[in-house]
């Protein structure tokens, strides 16, 4: 219980200490370029990022599609991430694509929790 209180206090501190976000808490997410990311598991080892992006593009603008690769075998690990520009597009894709076939395999789609997307070495170098 103390940990949840601490997290709320930190969030309130960040929110109240910045004059940029005083009027609307939604501005914090909008200013940071908030986009909805979906976790897709069960994809085929042969599925590419283009195939993943094209299969989700029917629901809206796909900002990024990332297939996590096994560097030793040079193939998909069986899961990836799809980022949409709008949250409602991601929500629609989640409900329709969950349990559907993609490249001959049933995929499972879920919303990503913040901080759960692994960073690649190139992303770490950019910071």
TrEMBL record:
Alphabetical list of InterPro entries matching this protein: Nucleotide-bd_a/b_plait_sf (IPR012677), RBD_domain_sf (IPR035979), RRM_dom (IPR000504), SLIRP/GR-RBP-like (IPR052462)
A Pfam family of this chain: RRM_1
Segments forming domain RRM: 36-114
Taxonomic classification: Eukaryota, Viridiplantae, Streptophyta, Embryophyta, Tracheophyta
Keywords carried by this UniProt record: RNA-binding
SUPFAM superfamilies: RNA-binding domain, RBD (SSF54928)
PROSITE patterns from the UniProt entry: RRM (PS50102)
Keyword Lyase among record annotations: no
Gene Ontology terms for molecular function: RNA binding
Name recorded for this polypeptide: RNA-binding family protein, putative
């Amino acid at each position: 219980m103390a940990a949840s209180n601490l997290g709320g206090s930190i969030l309130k501190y960040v929110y109240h200490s910045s004059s940029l976000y005083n009027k609307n808490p939604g501005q914090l997410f909008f200013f940071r370029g908030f986009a909805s990311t979906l976790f897709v598991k069960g994809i085929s080892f042969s599925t590419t990022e283009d195939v993943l992006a094209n299969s989700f593009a029917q629901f809206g603008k796909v900002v990024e599609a990332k297939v996590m690769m096994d560097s030793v075998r040079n193939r998909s690990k069986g899961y990836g991430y799809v980022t949409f520009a709008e949250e409602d597009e991601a929500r629609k894709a989640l409900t329709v694509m969950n349990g559907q076939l993609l490249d001959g395999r049933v995929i499972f789609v879920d919303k990503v929790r913040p901080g759960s997307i692994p960073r690649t070495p190139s992303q770490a170098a950019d910071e």
